[in-house]
Amino acid sequence: MCTARSVPGESMNPSEPQPTVPTAPSTATRPLALLVETAGAPWMLLAFLARLPVAMLPLTVLVSGQVLTGSFAAAGLLVGALSLGGVIGAPLVGALADRIGHRRTLVVITVPGALGILGLISLFFWTAPLGVALALAAIVGASNAQVGPLARAAWSTRFARHADARHRVEVAMGYETVADEVSYVAGPVLGATLAAVVSPVVALSVTLVLLVCGQLGFALLNPSDHTRVAPIGRRLTRPGLLAPWIAVAASVGLVFGSVQASVTASLAETAPGFTGVVYAFVGIGSATSGMLTHKLARWSLPDRVIGAGILLALAGGLLVAASLLTGGPLLHAGALALACLAVGLCVAPLLVSSYAAHRE
Prior knowledge:
InterPro entries: MFS, MFS_trans_sf. By secondary structure, the protein is mainly α.
């Protein structure tokens, strides 16, 4: 007669309660709840509000510059100075965060950003040369606190000791992508609408309040971080391979700037209050295609860039045609919105491809 062999530590009495193994919250079934439980709703809200000023500033500065100078050319120069400052300041902010930590960096970088916006506001009350306005715009751009990258790093810090850290971080990165896109839809609408309908001073003041409160609050609630000095002397073994992809990302930046200027100029006479709403369709298109870009995996990165580039050129032609369209304000704004949506749909594949190439 055979008897069942018992396993050490296992009870043979079916009526006896069996020990249970605690399980972690499922990231698959409730990802947003997991993020809120981990970081807290206040931190997530402040992280979102802190990135709104960056999204608001380009169109706000463009509309404000046109009102201030009476010239779209001068306003475009201001936006260019803002963008150039951001290009120069981004690696410096990253290096500072590595050396003194994220919290201190956020506090330090908030000061010149706030002073720069205050300077732009003062130009509406005191006359100054265009060069002063350009310098202030560059300071504001260079003071971009890079809240998005710092928030992503904070998620990695929070999840570092979890067994399923990789999956949790992937969930957090998905949320951060959505937060970025929502901010780039809401920011231009808020900034441009306030500047065109109320006044540029009000728009810049709201931007200032969001920048100071958002960044300092985000810094206060940020998880403690450890500073580290980046190793010196490390270089890419084949930096030339990145050059084409850097050019792709830079060209997307040129597209954003061109679309902002063209939409603002096109609606200046017919429906200036719709400027932010119309430009928001670029963000809507980019968010939509960004969620679907993974379906393009069957094509190589160069093929994706070529295809998206051709479609972007066609969308640009559609934007030009929409800007020349004659008719009522609503018809004009609607045509521009559709063209902006088409442009946005082509943007995400270009950016995602350039980022993927960088990782490879």
